[in-house]
Design a protein that fits this description.
Blueprint lengths: L6 H6 L2 E6 L4 E7 L10 E2 L10 E4 L20 E6 L3 E6 L4 E7 L4 E7 L3 E7 L10 E6 L5 E6 L5 E6 L6 E6 L3 E6 L9 E4 L4 E7 L2 E6 L2 E7 L5 E4 L7 E6 L13 E10 L3 E10 L9 E11 L7 E4 L4 E5 L3 E6 L4 E6 L3 E7 L4 E6 L4 E5 L1 H4 L6 E6 L6 E8 L5 E8 L3 E6 L6 E4 L8 E3 L4 E5 L4 E5 L13 E2 L4 E7 L4 E6 L3 E9 L5 E10 L4 E7 L6 E7 L6 E7 L10 E3 L4 E8 L8 E7 L4 E6 L8 E7 L3 H8 L11 E5 L7 E8 L2 E8 L7 E4 L7 H10 L2 E9 L2 E7 L3 E5 L5 E6 L4 E3 L33 E7 L4 E6 L3 E6 L4 E7 L5 E6 L3 E6 L4 E5 L8
Length: 860
């Protein structure tokens, strides 16, 4: 079918965040400080420019308020997730921070209604000793403290409804075949009305002082809430009602000060029928208690073969879902129904502004369909996007539109205990940093600030909370631009490399307010060279090595720095016809002829080792060549758009009691990983083996050749994870320290466990455009989904992955899941840093993005 222009990009371009909990989620509820109704919503075009459209399913509300002259858009939106094991978690839907938790001591939270005053909660027993099913829990909305527990029935409460006129009035139905009406302003212990029946009853609505309910033999009965008398009963015979929803009304329905009002409800039955009744309410001039209510059947259609679990609609279409036979889109005017899902679906949303239907399925997938052509009678609904963010079934969804009716955000919950936040505005949990000079940043652990050099010569600090330059922290103002920064936390020193060729050492002082002051200690000119790279010694940081090069010619060298004493007067060490792109310096103790060794990865792919003596200040001596040049391979990879090739090596040092330390170097030669082991001194030779020769099976070795050259390596060395291997492909492999392949991270968001390879499982994914998987890298380098750089944060235990199309994903190395995804750039990510509170990425076009790293596991 014809598709809307740009529809794929709108639906698939978003930032994502996943929060995991150990408790399954039964549904979602939303509240903006004014309105809340326990029904799913249909998103319609706003009638005023000051209104936004918001909707959801299983208790998600529209947040518009036409009764207000002005809207407060700065007001936080509160999201509540209903969990097993008694948890009701309240979120700030904008910042995605947890505001509080309401604990029901092990009983599963089934239903929730939020009003400006109270949070009403219905639970079911789930292994707890105390019987709570007969009660309605009432919490204060603002303080999240328990206000009351109303024992409503002799047995389990099956349903309840809150009045649209008063937060203190609600109705309950129970297994005792009773309907009780409550008014908290009068009594918390005894209901104001009791209605006895002869069969199980379900309370659906509490509207205009009337109670809408249904029971065996009576599809719909309406009682007056004051007198308890029956005022209306439908005559149609049908199956049992499972759902009652308002149609074509995204507001909370209010009846006060209305003389007459005609609305409609759509009703789902357990036999698969859907019916629409018009609801006419007439009020007398004296009081609402004397109002009359009548219902008239407008249409009825058989859509499903079994019970309907969710339903919503407007004047044009009706979307219905069933856990047994899937989701259908119905045209009530013609009775034509189109199948959207052929298997179980529990949740549905309608975005009538863009003629889109969103369905959450039992297998954890979310699908978006366009029904514009279907409504016109010319085609069937077209599938725009399908992604599977969950393992368990989708149990709740929440969608908000921007003022121009474009998608702002989509949230969905799952029975597997995870919440997914999709930000289509890309304005939350991340920000762009302007006027950045070079692709180098660093982190101050004590303050949490990120050091960023700017184009005007300033060195500024990005605040960890606001993700913007700190207003309280004065910038270090310089007369020349900085291209390299390196923070030395052990000595509170800052090493800077200037664009004009100087290198400088600053001392830093941090006061009680975490304000950093900078004082220059030393500066040295290296012109015509400049310093693009500075590395600190491992494991201590009292030494550093700075690599310098010329702008145009392939000439360079390195300089050793005594960080502890701010000494940068060591002799320059020159390299012949090349320069270093990676470096390491390792201090050596109790050695006669040397006290440090330097490892250099040159631009042509060769790896060299130098030995030097910092005490004697003599020139370092080239000791050995660990890996030979790969210049032809380097040039061929540069033609594909990679400016960071060859890949980094991973270095580890093993201290010995008698001899010199033993150095292990893991590096790549084409598609293969190599392990080089040698002495830190000149003694002995280099032992080179295949890194994956132990524990690697034949299929893994074949996979290495098929995927191509390694473009990036980074060490992890936590738990069973050794390092991350990035090839020019959509996959990132995690390998054990012994060389065994453990996990594979896919661009789409799925993570494969090699031990479970071949077993049937659900493949997870985030929204993305599948067309990029078929792009040729040579023709569309910046549209490729291949990974190109990684960075690991040991403190927060996550891996940041950058891709050629500008996407960044964050992988939890303990839970082994993708927990965040940023559509940060429109060009290849060339460098990335993983810090405890933020991720910083740069692209080939010079843009800089800072993404917040938030808490991704609750109660764990």
């Amino acid at each position: 079918m014809p598709e809307k222009p740009g529809s794929h990009s709108m639906i698939n371009s978003c930032n994502a965040r996943v929060v995991s909990t150990p408790f399954g989620i039964n549904g979602l509820e939303c509240y903006d400080g004014n309105l809340s109704v326990n029904h799913p919503r249909v998103l319609n075009s706003a009638t005023s420019r000051n209104e936004t459209a918001v909707g959801g399913a299983l208790g998600i509300r529209n947040l518009c308020n036409r009764n207000k002259e002005e809207m407060d858009f700065d007001k936080p939106i509160v999201l509540a997730s209903l969990h097993h094991k008694g948890r009701l978690v309240v979120w700030d839907a904008d910042t995605m921070d947890v505001l509080g938790t309401c604990d029901h001591s092990g009983a599963s939270v089934i239903e929730c209604v939020i009003t400006p005053t109270y949070i009403y909660v219905r639970v079911e027993n789930e292994g707890c000793l105390e019987d709570k099913e007969a009660s309605i829990f009432i919490w204060h909305t603002k303080s999240l403290k328990l206000c009351d527990r109303v024992v409503a029935h002799d047995g389990r409460v099956t349903s309840f409804a809150v009045s649209d006129e008063s937060d203190a009035c609600f109705a309950t139905a129970g297994v005792d075949q009773m309907v009780h009406l409550w008014d908290l302003a009068k009594d918390h212990m005894i209901p104001v009305q009791k209605i006895a029946l002869k069969s199980s009853v379900t309370v659906s609505l509490y509207y205009a002082g009337k109670i809408f309910a249904s029971y065996a033999g009576s599809p719909m009965v309406v009682w007056d809430a004051v007198s308890g008398k029956e005022v209306f009963r439908t005559k149609e015979e049908s199956g049992r009602i499972t759902l009652v929803r308002w149609i074509n009304d995204p507001q909370r329905v209010k009846s006060k000060r209305r003389v007459a009002q005609d609305l409609s409800i759509i009703v789902g039955f357990n036999d698969g029928f859907i019916k629409e009744w018009s609801v006419h309410t007439a009020h007398s001039s004296s009081s609402s208690s004397s109002s009359s209510v009548s219902l008239a059947l407008k249409w009825a259609h058989k859509v499903h073969r079994s019970q309907i679990d969710d339903i919503c609609g407007d004047d044009e279409v009706v979307l219905s879902c069933s856990a047994l036979d899937g989701a259908f889109l119905l045209l009530p005017s013609t009775g034509n129904a189109a199948s959207l899902f052929s298997y179980g679906a529990r949740i549905g949303l309608l975005d009538t502004c863009s003629k889109l239907a969103i369905v959450g399925a039992e297998d954890g997938s979310v699908a978006v369909f366009s029904y514009a052509e279907f409504y016109m009678g010319r085609s069937v609904p077209g599938k725009l996007s399908v992604f599977r963010p969950h393992v368990g079934s989708v149990t709740g969804m929440f969608l908000q539109l921007q003022r121009d009716q474009k998608w702002d955000r989509l949230m969905c919950s799952s029975a597997d205990g995870k919440l997914l936040f999709l930000d289509y505005s890309k304005s939350r949990c991340g920000s762009w940093i302007e006027r950045v000079k070079s692709q180098t940043v660093d982190f101050i652990p004590r303050t949490g600030g990120i050091i960023v050099p700017q184009k005007d010569g300033k060195v500024s600090i990005v605040n960890r909370d606001t993700l913007a330059f700190s207003s309280k922290q004065p910038s270090l103002k310089l007369s020349k631009s900085v291209i390299t920064v390196r923070w030395v936390d052990a000595y509170n020193k800052l090493l800077l490399g200037y664009e004009t060729g100087e290198i400088a050492v600053y001392e830093c002082r941090i006061d009680n307010n975490n304000i950093v002051s900078f004082f220059k200690l030393e500066e040295r000119g290296l012109s015509p060279y400049f310093v693009p790279l500075i590395a600190l010694s491992e494991p201590s940081s009292h030494l550093a090595v700075a690599c310098f090069r010329k702008e145009t010619l392939h000439e360079g060298g390195f300089l050793v720095i005594d960080v502890e004493h701010a000494d940068i007067t060591f002799p320059l060490q020159y390299l012949q016809r090349s320069y270093a792109i990676r470096c390491s310096i390792i201090p050596l103790k109790d050695m006669e002829d040397c006290d440090y060794t330097v490892i250099l990865l040159l631009r042509d792919g060769s790896i060299l080792q130098y030995l030097g003596d910092a005490e004697e200040r003599v020139d370092a001596v080239l000791t050995r060549t660990i890996s030979n040049s790969q210049l032809p391979n380097v040039r061929s990879m540069e033609l594909t758009g990679l400016s960071i090739f060859p890949s980094q090596y991973v270095l580890s040092v093993e201290q010995t009691t008698t001899d010199a330390p033993k150095i292990t170097l893991i590096y790549a030669e084409g598609p293969h990983l190599k392990r080089a082991t040698f002495s830190a001194t000149a003694a002995g030779s280099v032992e080179v083996t295949d890194f994956a020769e132990k524990g690697a099976n034949a299929s893994q070795q074949t996979e290495e050749k098929k995927l191509g050259d390694v473009v990036c390596l980074t060490g992890i060395f936590q738990g069973d994870l050794g390092l991350a291997v990035v090839r020019d492909s959509p996959f990132v492999d995690l390998v054990s320290p012994g060389g065994e392949y453990l996990y594979r991270i896919w661009y789409g968001g799925d993570v494969l466990n090699y031990d479970m390879e071949g077993r049937r499982r659900r493949q997870l994914s985030f929204p993305f455009d599948p067309a990029i998987l078929n792009e040729k890298k040579s023709l569309a380098m910046n549209s490729s989904c291949s990974a190109c750089c990684v960075s690991f944060c040991a403190e927060r235990r996550y891996l940041a992955i950058g891709y050629r199309d500008g996407t960044v994903q964050l992988f939890d190395t303990t839970q082994h899941v993708i927990f965040a995804r940023f559509m940060a750039h429109t060009a290849t990510v060339t460098s990335i840093w993983a810090f405890p509170h933020a991720m910083v990425s740069f692209s080939v076009d010079g843009s800089c993005y800072v993404g917040r790293v938030t808490r991704r596991v609750l109660f764990g």
